[in-house]
Amino acid sequence: MTEILRVEDIHAGYNGKQVLKGLSFAVRDGDVLAVIGPNGSGKTTLLRAMLGMLPLGAGKVTLFGKERLRGKDKEALISYIPQRMELDRTFPISLGEMLGLNKRGAEMDKYIDMLELGGLLSKKVGDLSGGQMQRALLAYAVMKGPKLLIMDEPTSWIDQKGADCILCIIEEFKKKGIAMIIVSHDLSVLRSVATHVLGLGHEGYFFEPADSPLMSEKLASLFGTLHHGERLVCPI
Amino acid sequence: MKTALLMGLILGTLFPLMGIFVVTRGMAFFSEFIAHSAILGGALALLSGVEPTLFLLPYSVFLGLLASSVWGFMPLSRDTVLGVFYGGTVAGGLILIAWKGLGQTSLMQFLLGDILLIRPADIWLSAGLLTAFIVLLRAGLRRLIKVSFLPEMAWAEGINVRLYDYALIGITALGVALSIKMVGVLLANAMVVIPAASAKILSRNFRQFMLMAPLIGVLSFTGGIALSFYLNIPSGPTVAMVAFAFFLLSLMLKAIHG
Q1: Taking a contact as any Cβ pair under 8 Å apart, which residues of chain A between 172 and 211 contact chain B?
Q2: What are the boundaries of each domain within chain A?
Q3: Is the Cβ pair B200, A92 closer than 8 Å?
Q4: Which sequence spans correspond to the domains of chain B?
Q5: What is the pLDDT of residues B1-38, one digit of tens each?
Q6: What was the ipTM of the complex prediction?
Q7: If you ran DSSP here, which 8-state letter would residue B25 be given?
Q8: Topology of A3-86+146-232 in CATH?
Q9: How far is A219 from chain B (nearest CA, A)?
């Protein structure tokens, strides 16, 4: 299995405050890494540091064997779906135009149907809900065909039906051997699709296979509270 | 008149296309700053005896990139930096004009525009800039859309967002500098913003937007130039007023048809 990402002893933060301290882990093709942790533990900071959007205080990030992956190589290999998008909702651009989904191949129609986007492609982006936009970005990622897909809270804006649909697509990606990193508060992501779990806490972190017998104990030490249903009840 | 109309055709196409991305990237104040900073640039050009457009082109690009470097690396917002540079350059220009007695007529032409100042070289330079911008749009429209609407995604996926911003800064600075003779310092930014805003109201999708904005721009420029010529009034305010009239028309059409 090819190593897609290696994070070695990274330190990163903002305004002199270290949020990530000595973090190390690796992702191989076909892995689905669920990144979980309480608010402020550094989940989004980690994504930004991995993608070169935040300078590292120390340590090294290697993507596809390169410390500085950039330009067309990076664009072809990586797709990133952020948690929030600050869109100009008054802009006259349709969803299909913005993401290039109007010029899709026939194989994309299956995903357009799965994500219930067919009737939305001609709609103005400003008329879409956060959840509809999230599903559209996932379709765009599918069309692009990356080797690494990074998603920050992909189910947070979506109802249960939509969340199930996204998990189905993640399963399909998994079968195709696409590596994924998913930041999520939603334990159904962890339970149903993750192959590994990276738990970030304020005092430390853990990196374990998803089926590790230590998982419940690790989660409890991270959050220090009970789990109710599929969603964590966080102390913060 | 023919020279001015040809210039109007070029700028009427270029400015709204620029305006689409200038407004999306939140750079409307930037183009206002570049236009007004030409008061200092024009004064320096007159003092040094260099043809104003030839002086303003590198001056505007330099100033634009300098300001963007300051807001990129200092703990100041973009608007704050632009506000500071705006004040400094306008003040510097007005001081030079008063101190060196650079002439009321020259100042008024500079502030309001005068189609009689346009030379064939201005047309060639403007046509060159429009061609370069169209080539950039054709080659990189998908990326430009991503940079404009989904900058975090673009950055994460390896697109050099800063480079696209610098390119937009450079093209905007050059475009505004080239337009000063026609529309003047005071209203150059109006022509970046107003035709694009009118088209935005009426467009249902991006394709319509890209077609309608330059159409409104060309009609505004050519209509305004013709009116200013026959009424013998400054070209800048006339062009801007015709553009504003199109904006009001857009509002009415939108209100009637929804």
Answers
A1: none
A2: 3-86+146-232
A3: yes
A4: 2-188
A5: 788 889 899 999 999 999 888 888 888 899 899 999 99
A6: 0.78
A7: T
A8: Rossmann fold (3.40.50)
A9: 29
